[in-house]
Each structure stands twice: as C-alpha cells, then as structure tokens.
Structure to design on (279 residues):
C-alpha cells in the first residue's frame, strides 16, 4: 500500500518507499521508548538468603537507581533474611551441592558436608570479596536505601517464617504478590533472583 | 584536540561494580549542567558501565582512555544549554 507523503525538499506528493516507512516506524518506537515511564522502572524479586546470592539484588538495585530508575526490590522466602537487622550472622554459603565453588584444594563431594565446611567457605568468600574491594552486603543495602530503592518484604513468607515487622531494618515496606505484579507490569526491567 | 579541563575529580580506584556508577551518579547530582567530571577507576567493568550509564542518564561521555592501568573518563553533565522540549 502506497502512503502519500510530503517531504521538505519536494513539494509534490510522492508515494512513500519502504525505507521511508521504516524510518518513521523507528523514530516512533524511539520516541515511545523515551516517553514510556516503564522504561525508567525496575522491579526485582530477591528470593535467596545465602551470602553469594545476597549481592545481586543490591548490586543491580543500586546500579539501577544510579542510572535514574525507580527501583523496587521484593524480598520473599529466604531473601527476607537480607532485610533483617541481625542479617549478617545469618549470611553463609555452603560448598555442599555447589561444584562451581572454588575450593583451596580439590575435595570429594562427601567432604564438603563435613562440620566446619560451611563456616570455612563463608569466611573464604568474605575475605576474597574484601580483598578484591567489593562493597559488603551491608554497604550495598545502605546504598540502596540512600538512593531511594524501595525494599519490600513479602508478608506471606514473613507469616510462614514467623518474622515480625520489628525484625527488619527501618524503611522496609510490606506487600504481597499482587503489589509486585502491579509494579512489574509497569516496569521494563523485571528480574527474579 | 585538547581534553576539556575538569570541574571536579572523582577517584574510584579500587572500587568494584556497582560503586563507580553509584559514586558518579551522586557526584553528577551536585554539578551544574555543562560542567565536566573526571573519573578515575580501576574496575574493568567501568569500560562498559560508564558509557551505558551516561547514555541512560542524559550525560555525555566526552572521552575515555587508559593511563598506566587506570581508566580515565571525562563526563559532561547534561541538561540545561541544549535540551529542547520535543
């Protein structure tokens, strides 16, 4: 179908070519992206409570906030631990069932379950991260709060685990799956961690 | 062409992702549109993170290069002089 189109340098009408149409569509898509509020929002679910998995939600949350996005992180299941006041002593990482974890010496799977191995792996990861200069989970959580990232605790799992609102740090909000979905459908960035 | 002189210097050497972008974003907030921020970083991820951050936030990455293992970025704060409503 030919579209009648008036160009700046040619006062006569001429049929638009496919290239014209493509250019118009591209420009419209770009404009829609620029004005779409969803392009400026990120919604993240943090479902894990181990030391290694504590980093990604706070790293992505703080980086997204730095890029000018409105960010919400929903903490559910074991992820709730990351919002607790006493979270640090609960954060650990275990080599059991994790063949990807770097170990100082090669080790049979059975030995990774020996008493003390979890503490060793946790200490190893903490010192490795500190040596390399990675911010601590506490620092990253602080950056998120300071940059206006909304931290939302899942009320259902709070109930199941027996956590009270007072167990969490100041500034935490409370919500459920409906609240998350309502925000996620208005966010281009939506991640499950 | 000589690199523009910076109005502010930010040292992020030794910091890893996401701290360089977090610090840059904070520093940019207090600069005026058109002012130039010079960033020093050693995190290799900054090579991709800083250009992407600048594009997302409407600031301009004037140039970046490496100086004996340190990444140097020059960023100009956007907004103000050349923005016109669509």
């Amino acid at each position: 179908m030919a579209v009648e189109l008036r160009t700046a340098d040619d006062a006569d009408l001429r049929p638009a070519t496919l290239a014209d149409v493509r250019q118009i569509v591209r420009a419209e898509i770009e404009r829609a992206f620029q004005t779409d509020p969803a392009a400026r929002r990120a919604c993240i679910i943090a479902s894990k409570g181990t030391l290694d998995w504590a980093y990604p939600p706070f790293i992505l949350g703080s980086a997204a906030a730095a890029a000018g996005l409105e960010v919400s992180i929903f903490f559910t299941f074991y992820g709730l631990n990351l919002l607790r006041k006493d979270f640090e002593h609960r954060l650990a990482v275990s080599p059991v069932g994790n063949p990807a974890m770097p170990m100082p010496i090669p080790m049979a799977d059975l030995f990774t379950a020996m008493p003390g191995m979890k503490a060793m792996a946790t200490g190893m990861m903490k010192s490795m991260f500190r040596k390399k200069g990675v911010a601590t989970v506490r620092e990253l959580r602080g950056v998120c709060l300071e940059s206006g990232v909304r931290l939302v605790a899942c009320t259902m799992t709070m109930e199941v685990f027996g956590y009270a609102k007072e167990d969490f740090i100041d500034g935490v909000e409370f919500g459920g799956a409906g609240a998350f979905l309502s925000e996620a459908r208005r966010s281009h960035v939506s991640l499950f961690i | 062409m000589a690199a523009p002189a910076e109005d502010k210097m930010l040292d992020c050497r030794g910091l890893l992702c996401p701290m360089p972008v977090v610090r840059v974003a904070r520093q940019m907030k207090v600069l005026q549109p058109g002012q130039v921020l010079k960033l020093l970083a050693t995190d290799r991820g900054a090579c991709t993170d800083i250009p992407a951050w600048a594009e997302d936030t409407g600031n301009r990455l004037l140039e970046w290069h490496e100086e004996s293992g340190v990444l140097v970025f020059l960023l100009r704060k956007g907004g103000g002089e050349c923005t016109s409503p669509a």
